[in-house]
Each structure stands twice: as C-alpha cells, then as structure tokens.
TrEMBL record:
<feature type="compositionally biased region" description="Pro residues">
    <location>
        <begin position="1"/>
        <end position="11"/>
    </location>
</feature>
<protein>
    <submittedName>
        <fullName>Uncharacterized protein</fullName>
    </submittedName>
</protein>
<feature type="region of interest" description="Disordered">
    <location>
        <begin position="1"/>
        <end position="20"/>
    </location>
</feature>
Length: 130
C-alpha cells in the first residue's frame, strides 16, 4: 500500500516504532484532526488491513438491499463502511473523521487496491435483484 505524501508518519522518539493506540489510550476530547490521524494510522496495521480487505458479499447485500441504494454502491462507499467498522473499534463515530479518514486512505491506495473494492461493488450491484 502506498503511503500518501500529505500524511506524515507518527511522531516517535528515535529508534522506536509507533504503537497503535487502543481505545483506552485515546483521549475523549481529542481534536478531529488527531482522530483522523489515529484512524488512518490504525487502518495501516496488518490486522486492520486484513479486516478491511476481508469482504463478505452477503453482509453488504443485506445493507444495500433496497433498490434505491443500488446506485450508491461504489468501491469508495464499501471502503467507508469498513473504515466505520474500524472506527467503532477505536470508539470513533464522528462522521467528519470517518469521511476524512476514508478520503486519505482511498487516495493512498494503488489502483489494484482500489479495483478490489470497485469490482466487489460491481458484484454486489449485480447480485441485488432488479
């Protein structure tokens, strides 16, 4: 996964690797920009990437069952759904934070990574009855 240039790496003392913050370590009154950075950093961990790229067609089909929602099923919307799930693990539910994190992560994906979500979105749209 390519890391976009506009997102600086986490600030850590020399020689130490940044640790992912657990929900207990995240202050309740954290600024949205800090929450975005925490969520983006968290989503780059191997465990989070595994959860993000494990896509289940049945769960998404149930969520988008109504025909009106069919046109809103895009690769980015599926990614945003997965980022919402990751945000819930960190007790982050702010819509702005979720949206901004999704934008940064989507921009950091390669075309191949984006195509995983886009192809999956096409499959879900075709599986919903017309």
């Amino acid at each position: 996964m390519n890391i976009p240039a506009q997102i600086p790496p986490a600030q850590t003392p020399a020689g130490q690797t940044p640790a992912v913050q657990t929900p207990a370590q995240i202050p309740a009154v954290q600024a949205p920009a800090q929450q975005v950075q925490v969520l983006v950093n968290h989503s780059r961990t191997p465990q989070a990437l595994l959860r993000i790229f494990s896509l289940n067609a049945n769960s998404f089909s149930r969520n988008f069952r109504r025909l009106n929602d069919k046109k809103y099923i895009t690769g980015r919307s599926l990614l945003q759904t997965k980022i919402k799930e990751e945000g819930r693990l960190l007790n982050i539910t702010n819509r702005y934070v979720i949206s901004e994190s999704t934008n940064r992560i989507w921009k950091g994906f390669t075309w191949t990574e984006r195509n995983v979500f886009t192809t999956f979105a096409n499959d879900i749209r075709t599986s919903i009855t017309n």
